[in-house]
Amino acid sequence: MSNVAIAVALALAVCRSAIAAETAKVVVTPRADLKWTESGIPGVSAAVVEGDMGKGPSRFYLKYAAGFVAPIHHHSPDHYVTTLVGNLVLVVDGKEHRLPAGSYFAFTGKAKHAARCEGSEACVMFIDARGAWDVVPDSKPDAKQ
Known about the structure:
The chain is mainly beta and 145 residues long. It has a single domain, classed as Sandwich (Jelly Rolls), CATH 2.60.120. Helix content is 14%, strand content 42%. It has one helix and eleven strands, in the order H-E-E-E-E-E-E-E-E-E-E-E. It has one helix at 3-23, and strands spanning 37-38, 44-51, 58-64, 69-74, 79-85, 87-92, 95-100, 104-107, 113-118, 123-129, 136-137. The strands form two sheets. A six-stranded antiparallel β-sheet has the order 1-2-3-10-5-8, with no helix packed on it.
């Protein structure tokens, strides 16, 4: 490699590091500082840790009360979810997926699904939503769900 190529590579690395340092962001939210709010759907509450759920990308906790059942619906943004507490059951294309604490799932392209929280404890999930969060009920529920 020529000296010029090495110099260019080093310059780019330094610039990249400087840009990263200027845009670095740290978000720290201890559990005691979570602010849970009712979602408008009985049995569902949320605690936002970053962003604004109604306006764009956000990261938040979502809690279903024990026994909560969500009929077939979808969400407009792609979203990525980790279950933290409880026993969540998702129904997608008629198939049940049991997702205990520590499980992961992702929905893209407005995938239709139903959900329920089984057992005696609430279900808590952490969601990374890539756009404004919504819940769109299925206008023609499919018997498979």
